[in-house]
Here is the input.
Amino acid sequence: MEDDCSLCHRRRMEGTEYCPHHQRAFKNLEEKYVSWEKALGIDWIEFLGRVSVMKETGVWAREVAASQLKESRKQGRPVHPS
Ligand SMILES: [Zn+2]
Here is the structure.
């Protein structure tokens, strides 16, 4: 379905590719990345790679991280949320 979240079958939020659950997880990842980037100097792809395998990462966030990672690799560059 056109209106489905790209990760599940819930309806996506307007202007995003995710449902409210995945969108919230995505926002959390973005915020987390800002502090990780400052502290560790890692890039978006490396960050996604790490959080997507961390036990501490919630299920929603892991799904988002994995899909962002796939997308970034497919495009050959980080799809960084600016
Ligand atoms: Zn979803």
Observations:
- Residues 20-75 form one domain.
